[in-house]
């Protein structure tokens, strides 16, 4: 892929990423800040086991789900307008979501290797396999992952499709049962991966092939 095409692809993905982030309509796992701390503080005051640390993690999501069940709301673990109003008694503010500086670096760096060929067992820009590519990109950001897709699947914590943010790892069951393929989520339903058929390339999580073998996602940042 030429440098011009690579830059065009990078610009397109980052624009989609920015749109998806700014258009967010609920507080969810990965969000941070004073609004999250206020949500957590109210949950804690109602007796739910959560610390008001301003970091929306899995424990906060579980507390939100428990609150939603108690109030007859859709128990998705997301704090959207209806859940926010039921919890805090006021209209929900606009959600301004970003991702961590590490996440931004991972996404930007991942795009630099578009077009690199697939090489079974490859771990360098001369040729990557899926987990070798992911490991290389994350190592550049200071996050060290195991070598194989199934081992990477044990890192971090699980996130649902609705909770995905750029930089999350997405996993697929392809040539064998269990997590045998991994990619990096970019946003707007797209991910980047080292595929045996096309090398480092961008694909849709919802395509007929990838959608049929998708098994879950993990957040390691």
Give an overview in words.
By secondary structure, the chain is α+β, with helices and mostly antiparallel strands. Helix content is 38%, strand content 16%. The strands form two sheets. Strands 3-8-4-5-6-7 form a six-stranded antiparallel β-sheet. Strand 4 (169-172) and strand 5 form a beta hairpin. The longest helix has 20 residues, at 3-22. It is elongated.
Keywords:
two-stranded antiparallel ribbon, elongated, 221 residues, six-stranded antiparallel sheet, alpha+beta, 16% strand, single chain, 8 helices
Quick structural summary:
The protein has 221 residues and is α+β, with helices and mostly antiparallel strands.
C-alpha end-to-end distance: 29 Å
What is the helical fraction, as a range of percent?
A: 25-40%
Strand order of the largest sheet: 3-8-4-5-6-7
Outline the low-pLDDT stretches.
11-24
Largest β sheet strand count, sense and barrel closure? 6 strands, antiparallel
Strand content: 15-25%
Beta-strand segment tally: 8
